[in-house]
C-alpha cells in the first residue's frame, strides 16, 4: 500500500508563507489550497499544508507552540547534491528565513538548517547514495 504524508504547519501570514515556499521553487496543489490553507507539493507522496493559525486551531485542542522560541520538530528534506543543499538554504535566507546552524559535513552526509518565516526548523540534506550503514 502506498502512503502519503501530509505535514500540517500553523503559519502567521499565509500569503507570506506561500510566497516564501514559491521562492524556494515549490509548487502547490490547488485542490487543497484556499484562503485558509496552502498545500505545498514536496513530491507525489509528501505534502506540507500551511494552515492559517485560526484554521490550524480547528484541528487541535492543544495550545499552539511559538515556533520562533521553541522547537516543535525538525523537518528534514533530502536533495540530490551538496550544491542543492547550499542553493536551497541560500534561497531560503534570501526569501526571509533565518539561519539555524552552520552547514554540517559528516562526510557521507551534508546538511544545513534554516528557520522559515514562522520559525519552523527545516533541514536540507544530501546523503551519499554509495554509503552503507556501519555495524554498531
Automatic annotation (TrEMBL):
InterPro entries hit by this protein: Glyas_Bleomycin-R_OHBP_Dase, Glyoxy/Ble-like_N, VOC_core
GO molecular function, one term: dioxygenase activity
Source superkingdom: Bacteria
Domain VOC, first and last residues per copy: 3-127
Pfam assignment, any one: Ble-like_N
Keyword Oxidoreductase appears in the UniProt entry: yes
Signal peptide as annotated in the record: none
Protein name: Glyoxalase/bleomycin resistance/extradiol dioxygenase family protein
UniProt entry keywords in alphabetical sequence: Dioxygenase, Oxidoreductase
Amino acid at each position: 500500500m502506498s502512503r502519503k504524508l501530509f505535514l500540517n504547519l500553523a503559519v502567521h501570514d499565509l500569503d507570506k508563507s506561500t510566497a516564501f515556499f514559491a521562492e524556494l521553487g515549490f509548487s502547490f496543489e490547488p485542490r487543497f489550497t484556499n484562503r485558509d490553507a496552502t498545500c505545498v507539493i514536496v513530491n507525489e507522496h509528501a505534502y506540507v499544508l500551511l494552515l492559517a493559525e485560526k484554521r490550524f486551531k480547528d484541528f487541535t485542542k492543544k495550545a499552539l507552540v511559538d515556533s520562533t522560541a521553541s522547537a516543535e520538530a525538525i523537518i528534514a528534506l533530502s536533495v540530490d547534491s551538496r550544491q542543492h543543499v547550499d542553493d536551497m538554504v541560500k534561497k531560503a535566507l534570501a526569501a526571509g528565513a533565518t539561519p539555524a546552524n552552520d552547514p554540517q559535513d559528516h562526510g557521507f552526509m551534508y546538511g544545513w538548517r534554516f528557520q522559515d518565516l514562522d520559525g519552523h526548523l527545516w533541514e536540507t540534506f544530501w546523503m551519499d547514495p554509495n554509503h552503507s550503514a556501519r555495524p554498531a
